[in-house]
Amino acid sequence: MADPKRSWLDGPQIPAEYDDPDAPGRWPGEKLGLPQSGPGSLASVARRTGGVAIDWVIAWIIASFVGTFTDVLGGVSTMTLMFWAVLGIICGWLFARTPGQAVLGMGIARVDVGGAKVGLWRAVVRTLLTAFILPAALVDSDGRGMHDRATGTSVIQG
Question: Where does the chain cross the membrane (predicted)?
């Protein structure tokens, strides 16, 4: 019900800071219960990009090596994508971090259940969404990639 003291001449009512669930928090990850900085805080887009680049170089080296012996899996570029995806799925599932994330001090965490493992299906879905549909640079108001939002995960520091 509308406020009887307001009229259309007053313009739109601006919601209070915590009344709007879609409003951004004071820092990325605040609404997820993550700290502002330090271990457990959200990793920046630049840091996540560096992790992906390291993983891509690892996959490219493996693909170049395999490509010298066979072309059954396709060219080096196709094999690079395949090895990058396999690396992301296996390492995300077993270790909750890829080699690139480990080098840069990051990891994958579930935000819906604190302390729970990422799990195989989340590792598969988030890697395939990143590879084929949602670039990791598309982020929400908390700074999480759309692939992380879809799987209930987040890349955190530590």
Answer: 52-70, 76-96
Gap between the Cα atoms of 63 and 56, Å rounded: 10
The model's pLDDT over 31-62, given as tens digits with 9 standing for 90+, comes to 778 888 888 888 888 898 899 999 999 999 99
The identity of residue 57, as a single letter, is V
- Can you give the pTM of this predicted structure? 0.79
Which 8-state DSSP code applies to residue 88? H
- Structural domain boundaries in the chain: 38-157
**In terms of C-beta density within 10 A (0-12 exposed, 13-18 middle, 19 or more buried), how is residue 72 classed?**
exposed
Instruction: Give one DSSP letter per residue of 51-112, joined into a string.
Output: HHHHHHHHHHHHHHHHHTT--TT--HHHHHHHHHHHHHHHHHHHHSS-HHHHHTTEEEEESS
The two structure tokens encoding residue 74: 């396709």
Write out pLDDT tens, residues 116-137.
889 999 999 999 998 887 776 7
Question: Position 141: which residue type?
Answer: S
**Residue 4 confidence (pLDDT):** 58
CA-nearest of 47, 79, 53 to 65 is 79
